[in-house]
Design brief:
By secondary structure, this protein is an all-alpha fold. The protein contains 16 helices and no strands. It folds into 2 domains: about 10-250, Rhopdopsin 7-helix transmembrane proteins, CATH 1.20.1070; about 270-385, Homeodomain-like (Arc Repressor Mutant, subunit A), CATH 1.10.10. The chain is elongated and about 80 Å long.
C-alpha cells in the first residue's frame, strides 16, 4: 500500500472547517434556545456536512490509508442532508409538532443497512476503492472478495439519488418559506425578519452546494466536487465561528451557520436613546392600540406607523426583546386569544372566529403559533380550562 501523505492549503482549510463545524454543531444541538428543535436539526445538518468533509479531507491528504476501516462510513450521511435541511426550515417557521418527521429518515436508514456490504470488506479492497475513486496512478492490490460490496448495483447511482433527494427537500423547504411569508405579508427576497431571512439563506446556500456538485461532476473526474463542497462548508464554519465570538447571544435566537455574517447592525446610527424611543413606540402600538390584531400587520407597516425604518425596528426588536417581529406578533396574538378563550363569551366562539379576532387569516397558522407558545392547540387549551374545576388535583 502507498502510505504517502500530501498536505496542502486546501486540506488544511477543510480540516479547520471540519473541526470548527463539529464544535459548532454540538452547540446547536445541546445549547438550550427558544427554538430547540430547529437548532437541533441545524446542528445535525452541520454535523453531517462536517463528517462528510472529514472523509473528503482524509482522501485528499491520503490519511485515509491509515484508517481504511472508516472508508465510505459517511456515505449514508449524504442522504441526511435533505431531511435535516427541510426539518430545520419547517421547525424554524412554524415549530408545529409532527409525529411523521421520522418518515424522512427511512431512505438514509435503508441505505445505512445496505452500506454494511461495504463496511465488511477487507482493508485491501477499501484501499483499491480509494485508488480508483481518487484516480491515482498507483498499482492495485490483488483482492478476491467473498461477497460483493454492491450486490444490487446501486452505489453508482448514489450521487444521482442524493442530488434528486436534496433537490426535492429544497423545493419543499422553499414552498414552506413562501407559504409562511404569504401568511405574514412579507417578501422572502426583501425582508428584515430574522427567521425568514435565515431560512431563505440556508435554502440559497444549499442550492449553491448542489450547483457546485453538479457542475464539477459533469466537468471534472473523481472527488473534485466533494473537495469544492468541503471548502464551501469550511468557509462558513470559519465565518460562523468569528460571528459567534463577536455575538454572545448568537445561539439564543434563530440563526443559521449558513448566514453570511454581514455585520448587519454594526454601522447603525441608532443611539441608546433612539432605541428606547423606538421600543416605547412599538409597545404603545402593541399594548394600547393592539396593532397585532390587524390581519395585514407587517414589519414595514409598523415601521411606517411609528415613523422609523424597518431596518431600525428589526434591530431594536432583536437587541431589546431578543425576538423577531413575527415572534413578537405571535406572542401578543396568542396572549389575546387566551384571554378571549377564558372569557364566558369566548366559549360561544368557534376557533376560526377567535383566530380572525387576533389577526390571523389562517386557522392553521393560528393553531401552529398557539401550540408553539402554549404546548396546546386552542381547542385543547379550551378543554383544559373547562375541565379544570373537575380535575383540580391533576397536574396541568
Amino acid at each position: 500500500m502507498n502510505t504517502a501523505i500530501h498536505i496542502d492549503v486546501v486540506s488544511v482549510i477543510i480540516f479547520l472547517g471540519v473541526f470548527l463545524g463539529i464544535i459548532l454543531s454540538l452547540f446547536f444541538i445541546l445549547k438550550p434556545s427558544s427554538n430547540i428543535k430547529a437548532n437541533r436539526y441545524q446542528g445535525f445538518l452541520l454535523l453531517s456536512l462536517s463528517l462528510i468533509s472529514m472523509e473528503v479531507d482524509l482522501n485528499l491528504t491520503g490519511y485515509i490509508v491509515k484508517v481504511l476501516p472508516v472508508t465510505y462510513s459517511t456515505a449514508a450521511l449524504n442522504l441526511l442532508i435533505g431531511p435535516f435541511l427541510y426539518l430545520y426550515v419547517k421547525n424554524s417557521l412554524d415549530q408545529s409538532s409532527s409525529k411523521k418527521e421520522w418518515f424522512n429518515f427511512i431512505l438514509p436508514l435503508l441505505y445505512l443497512v445496505y452500506l454494511s456490504f461495504d463496511l465488511i470488506q477487507s482493508n485491501e479492497f477499501k484501499y483499491n476503492s480509494y485508488i480508483l475513486s481518487a484516480h491515482l496512478n498507483l498499482p492495485l492490490l490483488e483482492v478476491h472478495p467473498t461477497i460483493s460490496n454492491d450486490p444490487l448495483k446501486i452505489n453508482k447511482y448514489l450521487d444521482l439519488l442524493m442530488g434528486i433527494q436534496i433537490l426535492f427537500y429544497i423545493v419543499l423547504s422553499f414552498v414552506k418559506l413562501v407559504k409562511k411569508a404569504g401568511e405574514t405579508g412579507a417578501s422572502i427576497f426583501r425582508t428584515t425578519d430574522e427567521v425568514l431571512r435565515s431560512t431563505r439563506d440556508v435554502i440559497f446556500h444549499m442550492c449553491v452546494i448542489i450547483l457546485i456538485f453538479v457542475i464539477v461532476k459533469i466537468t471534472l473526474h473523481g472527488n473534485a466536487g466533494n473537495y469544492f463542497i468541503g471548502m464551501y462548508v469550511a468557509l462558513f464554519a470559519l465565518l460562523t465561528t468569528l460571528r459567534v465570538m463577536n455575538d454572545s447571544a448568537y445561539f439564543d435566537r434563530s440563526a443559521s451557520f449558513l448566514d453570511i455574517p454581514m455585520g448587519k447592525y454594526r454601522k447603525s446610527s441608532l443611539t441608546e436613546t433612539g432605541k428606547q424611543k423606538i421600543i416605547s413606540n412599538i409597545m404603545l402600538e402593541f399594548e394600547t392600540r393592539e396593532y397585532f390584531s390587524e390581519s395585514l400587520a407587517s414589519l414595514s407597516d409598523l415601521a411606517k406607523k411609528i415613523g422609523e425604518s424597518p431596518h431600525h425596528v428589526s434591530q431594536v426588536l432583536n437587541e431589546k426583546l431578543n425576538k423577531s417581529f413575527f415572534e413578537l406578533l405571535a406572542t401578543y396574538r396568542v396572549e389575546k386569544a387566551k384571554k378571549i378563550i377564558k372569557e364566558d363569551e369566548g366559549n360561544k366562539l368557534i376557533i376560526e372566529e377567535i383566530s380572525e379576532m387576533v389577526g390571523y387569516n389562517s386557522k392553521t397558522a393560528f393553531n401552529n403559533a398557539f401550540k408553539k407558545l402554549t404546548g396546546k392547540t386552542p381547542s385543547e387549551y379550551r378543554k383544559s380550562l373547562n375541565s379544570l374545576p373537575l380535575d383540580n388535583n391533576k397536574p396541568d
